Amino acid sequence: MTKPLDPKLARQGRIAALVIAGAALLSIFAPVIVSGLGLPARFEILILLFALAAFIWSLVVAVRIWQKSRD
Q1: CA angle at residue 2 from 65 to 64, to 5 degrees?
Q2: Positive/negative CA dihedral, 21, 23, 27, 33
Q3: Whole-angstrom Cα distance, residue 19 to residue 27?
Q4: What are the DSSP calls for 11-65, one per residue?
Q5: Ordered per-residue pLDDT tens for the chain, 71 residues
Q6: Cα–Cα distances in Å, from 35 out to 23, 29, 45, 57, 68?
Q7: pTM of the model
Q8: What is the per-residue pLDDT for 69?
Q9: How far apart are the two ends of the chain, measured CA to CA in Å?
Q10: CA dist., res. 51 & res. 45, Å (int)
Q11: Given this model, what pLDDT does residue 70 score?
């Protein structure tokens, strides 16, 4: 049988999942946000770069959770 997941790791996993969901929504709605506010296209790229950074951060956190759960 597998042992139950540490509550600290479970919390980190939930935070990573929320960041992934938020980054996905941000990347989907970036064109709508920029056009709605009347901003130049470079701000859309900036928003997408923030979303990319969030995806990379979530990937790093997920790998660290996976490594800790293997012990």
Answers
A1: 10
A2: positive
A3: 12
A4: HHHHHHHHHHHHHHHHHHHHHHHHHHHT--HHHHHHHHHHHHHHHHHHHHHHHHH
A5: 466 678 899 899 999 999 999 999 999 999 999 999 999 999 999 999 999 999 999 999 999 999 988 87
A6: 19, 10, 13, 27, 43
A7: 0.84
A8: 85
A9: 14
A10: 10
A11: 83
Tokens of 25: 């929504």
What does each C-alpha distance from 62 to 2, 29, 41, 47, 65 come to in angstroms?
A: 19, 25, 32, 23, 5
Residue 63, token pair as written in the block: 């790998």
Residue type, 71: D
Write the CA distances from 56 to 4, 38, 59, integer angstroms: 27, 29, 5
